[in-house]
Write a structure and sequence with these properties.
Layout lengths: L13 H23 L2 H6 L2 H5 L4 E5 L7 E5 L8 E5 L8 E7 L2 E6 L7 E4 L8 E4 L8 E2 L3 E3 L2 E2 L2 E2 L6 E5 L8 E5 L10 E5 L2
Antiparallel strand pairs: 1-14, 2-3, 4-5, 5-8, 6-7, 8-11, 9-10, 12-13
Pfam family, one: Ricin_B_lectin
Protein name: Ricin-type beta-trefoil lectin protein
GO molecular function: carbohydrate binding
Length: about 200
């Protein structure tokens, strides 16, 4: 029969004391999460962290842009936003950052566009991604629903009403700010499509 000497670990060593303390802290934290169902930690998460959990593509409702999604094309020169064939990469993954009263900032999951929002400076201007600053040129109203699942996105710029629009009635890949048309105008209609 083999006899193995078992010795208790020496707790007078600094690295052992740290390991024991760390283990005790982790045990305490895990018991708090289990006892509260995780709600204490979830309530402290920032709104943007909660919203970033789900990403979706924004598909345009015009028949001429079928199969195309809103894309952050930043860093390639020209307008920052364009319509492009749909795919699952992050530069076509968007989310609404809720501002209240039906207003949102439209943000990208693309690492290259971190802390940037879709920005409109006025009628006819190409849409671009710029750092989120809380200005009216980055506030979009989602309250105008056209048909189930479809919406117009109108900027809250003072003095004019513009919508997120695919140029030339959807026959272009350029995304611009344009005067809001009828709520059934396809090149101004947008729908969420889950990124799969």
């Amino acid at each position: 029969m083999n006899s193995i000497n078992h010795r208790e670990p020496r707790t007078d060593r600094p690295h052992v004391r740290r390991a024991v303390r760390l283990s005790a802290m982790l045990t305490l934290i895990s018991s708090l999460v289990v006892s509260t169902g995780g709600s204490a930690l979830a309530s402290e998460a920032s709104p943007s962290a909660r919203e970033m959990a789900v990403g979706s593509r924004l598909v345009n409702g015009d028949g001429d842009t079928s199969g195309k999604c809103l894309e952050n094309a930043g860093g390639r020169g020209g307008p920052s936003l364009q319509m492009a064939p749909c795919h699952t990469n992050a530069h076509q993954s968007w989310y609404f950052h809720q501002l209240g009263s039906g207003y949102v900032q439209i943000r990208s999951h693309d690492v290259d566009a971190a802390d940037k929002c879709i920005t409109s400076y006025g009628h006819g201007d190409p849409m671009r991604m710029e750092f989120c600053d809380g200005g009216d040129h980055q506030r979009w109203w989602t309250g105008r629903q056209a048909s189930p699942g479809w919406m117009q996105l109108s900027a809250s710029n003072p003095g004019f009403s513009v919508c997120l629009d695919v140029k030339e009635h959807g026959e272009s890949n350029i995304v611009q700010a344009w005067e809001c048309g009828a709520s059934n105008q396809g090149n101004q209609l947008w729908k969420w499509h889950s990124v799969g």
